[in-house]
Write the structure tokens for this entry.
Amino acid sequence: VSTQSTGKEPLDMSDDEVDVEKTKALAEAQKAKGNAAFAKGDNKTALRHYTMAINLAPENAVYYSNRSAAHAGMGSWSLCLEDSHKTIELRPEWFKGYTRLAFGFSGLKMYACAQEQYEKAAAFEDAPQSVHDSLAKASDTASKSGATLEEERNWLMEQQAAENKQKMAEAGCSVM
């Protein structure tokens, strides 16, 4: 009996470890498909692939960040904000979540909130120049809009309450 290695022996991994690796690979493949669709401007397809990646690996902040961008590309600003918040929750030390959130606020014309988030993003050492440029633009726009952070937050809460009421009505629930 030969004891020499042929280099073709199976890796010494448990079934659970193999499943985790396969799942990660499947999630990354979905992200790659989403990135390709996003690059072509096909946000709907990108959204589907990023959602599949999230379903496979729900603790990966990059997938939420990418899906946030796809939502923004479709003008689905409240969903953009949701995924941005999840990105920050999962990876608070990453500037990208804050820039996604700022972009979502800009889409809602909540420029003071956008400025606040760009300030947070710009505070990271690894924030690229584009973040600082976006902060400068957001600061200028916020000063011209005249709305305060509190006014914008109140408006957003009112919008979300109205959205929730509409969803409940559509589901057949009586809405007071």
Notes: The first helix runs from residue 15 to 39.
